[in-house]
Amino acid sequence: MELTGNNYPRFNVFESRSSSPALWRINMKQVKDYYLLHGFAVLVLASLLGCATQAPHATSVTYLGNCGFLYANEKDKVLVDPFGTEYGNFFHLPSSNTLSQVNRSRPPFDGIDLLLITHIHGDHYTPSLVEEFLKNNSNTRAVLPPQVLKDMQKKCGDFTKISAQIISPELKMNESRKLRVNDVELTVVRMQHGARRDISKVPSSEYTEYEKTENYGYIFTIGKKKVFHQGDGCLKLNEEVINAIGDVDFGHLSFFDWDVTSFDILKNKLHANWVIFMHGTIPGEEFKREAFKETYPKLIKFEKELDCKDFRERLAL
Predict the structure, then answer these.
(1) Residues whose CB falls within 8 Å of the CB of residue 212, separated by 6 or more in sequence, listed in order
(2) Alpha-carbon span 125 to 86, nearest angstrom
(3) Into how many domains does the chain fold?
(4) What's the predicted TM-score (pTM) here?
């Protein structure tokens, strides 16, 4: 352990944690030695053991289910696709307990700056839950596609109470928009949903109903780390979007990209430091693909909902 210029210790703290503080891996000897030296051992140790604390200089990622994640650091919190409630016989959706924690703003879901919804499908979005969340979190701003906006206007009990919190840019396929919302830098880009066929050369008037799904990908910055979440956008069929993103720190390998080609896009074209697996299936359909079996060991996996991992540059002791 060494002291910084501000006399703060650099602890070799936990790199991964679960939702239970009792399971965090903390180098308590370093904590004890430092605070005994300064006369506050009992108070500080009790605080560390009894409350939720984030590793310094870390970006934490908490998994909710399916494509739902919370990305956070000491300053900002961004929540993506937390409210999936349909197709639970096929996808790993958030439990009712987790959804309740989110909507009641229980830590770590307190103080959310941004809520991002990628598209209208029920394994990513439920209008009543978005409405309840925004009513309970008046400082949160939501960014979502126009299809979702229209659905909420139709189905919410009192949309007027939350309308001022919602931003819904209209984008054509491959078009992007840069925003700054609640001090979070954000790029919104429309991506082709799914992988049934390449529609990059197809006029929008010839899209099928499925292809008309407005899938928004999000690129945002948490601290100094850049996150790319594509929702159900297929990386292989969104080349124009991929070419415009630039390097990222976090990428995601999802339902339509279970192969080496898509993994290579994330690692070698976007230079993602960490590739997170999402949108897995309960029957394990992904493991029927040989290409996925080759890729799976290289991915970051969350074993259950509310699992949380910290990602940071290691600090010297």
Answers:
(1) 204
(2) 9
(3) 2
(4) 0.82
Per residue in 78-91, pLDDT tens?
999 999 999 999 99
Task: Give the rounded percent of residues in the chain with a pLDDT score beyond 90.
Answer: 75
Domain co-membership, 256 together with 305: yes
Task: Please name which of 267, 264, 269, 268 lies closest in space to residue 241, comparing C-alpha atoms.
Answer: 269
Instruction: Between 246 and 43, name the one with better pLDDT.
Output: 246
**Helical segments of the chain, H only:** 28-37, 41-50, 96-103, 127-136, 146-155, 239-245, 260-264, 290-295
**pLDDT tens, position by position, 143-171:** 999 999 999 999 999 999 999 999 999 99
Peptide bond into 107 cis (omega under 30): no
176-181 and 184-191 beta bridge pairing? antiparallel
The whole-angstrom separation of Cα 121 and Cα 105 is 24
Cα 90 to its chain centre, rounded Å, is 21
Q: Answer yes or no: do 186 and 278 share one domain.
A: yes
* 8 lies in the same domain as 150: no
Tell me, yes or no, whether 212 and 280 share the same domain.
Answer: yes
Show which of 18, 37, 53 is a domain's final residue.
53
3-state helix/strand/coil string of 34-51:
HHHHCCCHHHHHHHHHHC
CB atoms within 10 A of CB 260: 13
Range of the domain at 8: 1-53
